[in-house]
Amino acid sequence: TGHRVSVKLGTITPEGTADAYCYACDDNKLNPHLAQHLQVFGINVAAQQKTEKSIAELQLEHNLKFDFSMTTADGTQLQPVAGPGLTGLRNLGNSCYLASVMQCVFGIDRFRDRYFPSAADHFLTCSQLHPAKCMLCQLHKLANGLWSGRYAVLETEDGETRHQHGISPAHFKAMVARDHPEFASMRQQDAFEFLQHLNKQIDIAERPVEGGALNPTSVFDFTTEERLQCTKCSRVRYTTQKSSLLSLPVAKRPLAAVEGAPQEFEPVQLAECFDMMTADETVDGYMCPSCEQPTTAKKSTRFATFPKVLAVQVRRFEFVNWVPQKLEIPVQVPQSPIELGAYRGQGLQPGEEALPETNDQPPTDAQPEPVDESVVAQLESMGFPRVRCVKAVKKTGNTGAESAMNWIFEHMDDADIDAPDSEPQGTAAVADPAAVEQLMAMGFPQARVERELLQSDGDANRALDRLLNLSDDVTMDNVAAATDSKDDSASCSQYELTGFVSHKGSSVHCGHYVATVRHGLGTDSAWFFFNDARVVAQPEPQSEQAYVYFFTRND
User: Fold this and answer.
1) CA–CA separation, 329 vs 264, rounded Å?
2) How far is the C-alpha of 266 from the C-alpha of 50, rounded, in Å?
3) Active-site residue, from 96, 104, 134, 389
4) pTM for the predicted model, two decimal places
5) C-alpha pair distances (Å), 47 with each of 11, 33, 42, 52, 366
6) pLDDT tens-digit profile of 11-57?
7) CA distance to 82, 220, 471, per residue, from 477 (Å)
8) Catalytic entry in 122, 140, 503, 512
9) Residue 512 annotated to the active site
């Protein structure tokens, strides 16, 4: 690239590795030609001895200082375990978010059954010349490493059993993060955002395989029902949207502050979080197509169908002076079966009158809505993408940064959150034939591809996001029929907690992630705790401070 790179001399090894930092990229880099480059300065790499810890080692040492209890309530030390499904993942330097998510994901039967038994056959038949560039190869390889048990061997020292070394997910991380600048870096990342990215990458890789019939991410798919009611005429509108992950709000109730101690909060029941998610929301200035004037509307969201595995993020954070701060709010999750039927949508009910359909397309001579660029810049400085900032400012009527920021958090799960609002066009647009062909090769029908490309201003990546996340003409009348051959169900709504990702630290972008995974169901089940390469049996799972939960449907 021509960028200047600094090398930490004390980390040079005879094998030709060392800490290399690029100031232009502001990130650590791997230098495959390190020996050749240092020879210019008269440094013989083969004669060097490592005298200092690398950045990755320092980060790992720092992460291990976070207090995740390795003892039971009575003080008994948790014992290391190893075996199929109990293989640890070594920390590559701030990669605990990836390790924790992958342990939970491969604890799901559908993922294990898709990639583990067929690993050997895939390695023999894969047409990709370079396995390191094949997402399916890397998924099969990781599944084989985690579930074969060959690499889960407990060490012994002075007759005492020690933890296993685990396996390195370096090639998998390089592949899954190949086109993502944040996940490709050595910085700590948000585990829930990585889960979203992982689902997208697997979906893309699986679509050409038997039309996506083997895609294990379908276990996360479900449909939500949004109900909108005008408070003046009482007419209603029901719409549905495809989803795969759920984000729940948490009630913030601080306890009396103790000087010199961290702020503590009153525990919250999981059911209260679902109550908040499905509660009515007031929409001011709603232009009712029946009243034909601005009114106030009530909006609520419920489940139209339930997924086989419900992945839930609990939003335990708030912005203080525009900086995200984590809130240590305990969420009490039952270990017994959880019934979510009370949050099922019912569609148009007898006695309800539907709002008339409207044409939301603006006139061709309409002018783009102005936005306050100072507010957009303020939101961008917080790390939000520009398209999301502009949309938030427009949706909140240029009423300020705080209302726009709240809108972003309320709509983070919208499939089209990063799709720009369509600007008025004076002439009909035509989709790029090359982009159409590229997306059709992934298994999408031509009509949908062309429509989403036009909605995305010809951007193939944004069109792909819409194709993956937006429902194709799903209505309340065909939701049940559409789920007959899928994993989501319109009837069964009972779940059990089968895994969760926990976090220690002041922010989701720093600190340390660990995973707790349940193997088996009922009385034969057992819980295990994964802290990078260290794996122990966990008879008393601590789920109150988890960040991402995985619930499996009982059917």
Assistant:
1) 7
2) 50
3) 96
4) 0.75
5) 13, 16, 11, 16, 71
6) 787 777 787 878 777 777 777 788 888 888 888 877 777 676 666 65
7) 49, 22, 14
8) 512
9) yes
